[in-house]
Amino acid sequence: MKHPMGIKKTGGHFIQYGNRGMTLESDLSSSNLYYLENDIAVIYKKPTPLSICKVDYPSRMEAVIKEAYFKIPSTTDYNGIYKGKYIDFEAKETKGQSFPLANIHKHQIVHLQRVEKHGGISFLIVRFTKEDQTFLLETKFLTKFLKEETRKSIPLSYFQQYGVSIPSRYNPIVPYLKIVDQIYFGG
Questions:
Q1: Given pLDDT bands bounded at 50, 70 and 90, which one contains residue 75?
Q2: Domain presence at residue 1
Q3: What are the Cα distances from residue 57, in Å, to 46, 54, 60, 61, 179?
Q4: 155 falls within a domain
Q5: Which of 86, 77, 69 is nearest to 124 (CA)?
Q6: Which distant-in-sequence residues (6+ apart) come within 8 Å of 84 by Cβ?
Q7: Are the CB atoms for 112 and 76 separated by under 8 Å?
Q8: Number of H helices, E strands in the chain
């Protein structure tokens, strides 16, 4: 029988194959579907607002967008409701030992800060792909870094100190609401 996370024992060592080829976005989509189907939370990935200018129709059943532009800058990747609270977050992956601030736009940071200011739950989820580590970083710690540091990237050590590690599971794959419970609901 195969282990659901693709864990295989060879020569006394355990090898995990579960997340190879998976992206943070697909893992979060799977997790959000789990939360929805189990009536835990309603959280969706927001569509990017595009204005389509040119479309080719190679056949009756196919359409190919040839030209489009962003209508307005999008805010963050995900939003919804959990335990009666509005929740909003941005999710990013990085291959390096730090998270480049160029990967998150100023208007997204301002949006997260506004959500926090008005009593909502807001944070970043960042996956360090080489280390296979995923962290939830509250907006207040993102703001703290931006005010106190001049670096152009947030090092992994900052996430280890101020963020909360989200270990991968079978279902949900990214159980970030357990962390939200710990931080915002004392559970």
A1: confident
A2: no
A3: 27, 10, 7, 8, 46
A4: yes
A5: 77
A6: none
A7: yes
A8: 5, 12
Q: Please tell me the pTM assigned to this model.
A: 0.77
CA distance 92 to 41: 21
Helix (H) or strand (E) segment spanning residue 36: helix 24-37
Residues 6 or more apart whose CB falls under 8 angstroms from that of 64 comprise: 55, 56, 57, 58
- CATH number, domain with residue 40: 3.40.1350.10
Confirm if 136 and 39 have CB atoms less than 8 A apart: no
Name the pLDDT band for 7 (thresholds 50, 70, 90). Answer: very low
Query: Could you tell me the two tokens for 166?
Result: 């989200």
Considering its fold, how many domains does the chain have in total?
A: 1
Percent of the chain with pLDDT over 70: 79
pLDDT digits (tens, 9 = 90+) for 26-51: 999 999 999 999 999 999 997 655 55
- The answer as to whether 78 is a domain residue is yes
H helix intervals, the chain: 24-37, 106-117, 139-148, 156-162, 176-184
The pLDDT assigned to 56 comes to 76
For residues 97 and 86, what is the distance between their CA atoms, to the nearest angstrom? 31
pLDDT confidence of residue 103: 92
Residue 2 lies in a domain: no
**Cβ atoms of 91 and 24 closer than 8 Å:** yes
Helix 139-148 / helix 106-117 crossing angle, nearest 10 deg: 130
